[in-house]
Structures are given as structure tokens and as C-alpha cells.
Amino acid sequence: MMTRVALALALIGVSVCGVVGLQLWPVPYRRFDYRPKTDPYCQAQYTFCPTGYADGSIPLMKDEDTIEIFRLQAPVWEFKYGDLLGHFKIMHDAIGFKSSLTGKNYTAEWYELFQLGNCTFPHLRPDVEEPFWCNQGAACFFEGIDDEHWRSYGTLVPVATISGSMFNQLAKWIKEDNNTGIYYETWTVKDSMAPNSTLWFDSYDCSKFVLRVYQKLSELGATFKKSIETKYTRLFLYSGEPVYLGNASTIFGPHGNKSLAAEIHKFYFPYRPHQSFKDLLLSILEIYGKSVLQKTFYLYYNFEYWYLPMKPPYITITYEEIPLPSR
Questions:
Q1: pLDDT on residue 22
Q2: What separation, in Å, do the N-terminal and C-terminal C-alpha atoms of the chain show?
Q3: What is the pLDDT of residues 263-277, one digit of tens each?
Q4: Domain for residue 214, yes or no?
Q5: Of 245, 216, 206, 42, the residue nearest 109 (C-alpha)
Q6: Average pLDDT in the 232-240 region?
Q7: Quick check: helix, strand or coil at residue 230?
Q8: Close Cβ partners of 271 (under 8 Å, ≥ 6 residues apart)
Q9: What is the CA radius of gyration of the chain?
Q10: No. of H helices and E strands in the chain?
Q11: Where is the secretion signal located (predicted)?
Q12: Is the CB of residue 58 less than 8 Å from the CB of residue 174?
């Protein structure tokens, strides 16, 4: 007997055979050979990396230099809302560096080119069937550490010390990592809240950049202080085993799946920006009905669409301890 999920997918013409049985979890984050130019349609409310180096370079340090590494964390949009989002443990992470020879400070962070909403949900353009995504993310490296920003409501603490030679190796790795990991992914998708439950999809955001940098530093020989608490914000969706639906060319367009395309378009419509207060209330009800009552979520990952059969508690925001690397 078909499950409700399989029946619903069959009714809109989605195959539920083959790929599910062969799928490895979590789905690996796809990397690319180079970073493409952004589409002019995508516009940021706040300029990405306004004081960073225009060519994306990172200054070289002298091999004999000593570089202090700092853990940086502050509430998201602290510059506009202060500690508001910090009360919900929605935090942004970055890394600071200080040269002992020059006394100069630097900050490295990875975040959305066009703000979080654009990375999480698409634009639905008039008379265009396919949703349009502005979901690139990138590394930003600039001189200086804004002490007030990080200390006011967050964290600015030293976690390790490395040589100038190790820093230069890290700088090369950051550039390679940035050019091959090009898009932001908000959601972590798991089977349940149990510690060992299956991870279907992992996020790719500011905190994951920090964790990758820490791991690379460990590989290069850095030793981290162990007495420092290192917690990170994660947004979870909870779902039964996801079902692969296809990419843009197989779902949308003249040879696509019309019924599935319409379902995906309808699903994303309540998440559109710039709604009136009345429309926003109606959209919240529609989102609740689709995700909780109908237990349906459509995830866009690796430029492909997946069906998530949602399950309680549906969505959570956690602030989890992930220890510093040990050698």
C-alpha cells in the first residue's frame, strides 16, 4: 500500500522509485570550479563587504610573525536591532586576526551577498514559471576588528595563536574555499531531534565557515584553548526521508512537470517580500497550513528541488556547543 507521501507525489507526477533507495545521506554540498558573476536582478539592501579588499585578496604576513586568532560572535543585524535577535540566540559568527609585528587587526567572515531572506527563499517573477534564486554567499576579509560590535552583545575572545607562515597557508585555503563554495544554505534538515538521528541536509552559512577555518588551522598545526565555550546557531527542519524531485529544467519550462511546478510556485508564494500587514498575516496562516497541517516543505539544495515530508516539531532554532578542534 502506498504511503500518503508517495500517493501525493504520484498524483502530481513525481517518481518515488530508484533514487531514494540509492541516496546517500547527508546530501553532499556541491562545489564548483569557479564563482559565477551575480545576476543584476539580485540586489542587496546592504552592500556586501563594503570595506573589504576589492580583488578578494588577503595580505601576506611575514613567516616569523605571530598571529592571534579571535572568536567573534554577535546577534544577527546587531547594527540595526541591537541585542534583539540575540535573545532568540540568532547569532552571526566570524574570525579575527591580530599581527604581533604590525599590530594590525583583520576580520574574516562568510555571509549572504543579498541578505538572508534572498538566500532562503526565491523571487517569483511575473510571467516566469521558474523561481529565481539570489542565494550566493561569500567570504569577506577586511582590515580591522570592530570591538564595540562584537563586545556589546556578543563575544571577542582569543582562541589560538599561529605563525605568519601558517596564516599565509590559511589565506590561500580561504580563497580556494570561497571560489568553490558559492551558495548559502540556511537549513539543516534532520529526521528528528534525537542526537543520532539521520542528517538529510547540512547548512552552509557563517558558522560553518568558522568551523571550516578552525579545522584547517588544526590541520596546519594550531593548538586551540579548551576552556572556551563555542556555541553556534542552527536552524533545523524535521522531515521523514526526503524525495528528490528534479532540477529547474526537469520541473519548469515547456518540457517540465506542470503540476509539480505549480505546487512549488504556490508553496513559495507566501514567502514573498514586501507584503502588507494583512497579506503577511494571511501568508503566515498559509505557511502553517502547508508545513504543519499538510506536512509539506520544498527544499532547494544544490540547484535541485526536494520534497520534505515534515514531522514534529517541524522547525527549531538551536544554540549548540561545537567544541574547538583537538589535535
A1: 73
A2: 51
A3: 999 999 999 888 888
A4: yes
A5: 206
A6: 97
A7: coil
A8: 120, 121, 283, 287
A9: 21
A10: 10, 11
A11: 1-21
A12: yes
Decide: 188 and 235 in contact? Cβ < 8 Å.
Answer: yes
- From the number of C-beta atoms within 10 Å of its C-beta (0-12, 13-18, 19+), residue 55 rates as exposed
Residue for grid cell 507526477: 13
CA 294 from centroid of its chain's CA atoms:
26
- The residue segments making up the domain with residue 48 are 4-321
| Overall domain count for the chain | 1
206 is a catalytic site residue: yes
How many degrees, rounded to 5, is the angle at CA 266 between CA 262 and CA 269?
A: 140
Choose the catalytic residue: 140, 206, 265, 274.
206
Q: What's the pLDDT score for residue 84?
A: 87
Neighbours of 317 (CB within 10 A): 11
Q: What is the pLDDT of residue 2?
A: 38
Compute the average pLDDT of residues 28-38.
91
* Ramachandran quadrant class, 82 (left: phi over 0; alpha: psi -120 to 50; beta: rest): left
**Given 92, 119, 134, 265, the catalytic residue:** 92
Give the whole-angstrom CA distance, residue 210 versus residue 177: 12
Active site residue 134: no
Peptide bond into 26 cis (omega under 30): yes
19 grid coordinates: 533514487
* pTM for this entry: 0.89
Q: Which grid coordinates belong to 293? A: 497541517
Residue 92's DSSP bridge partners are 74
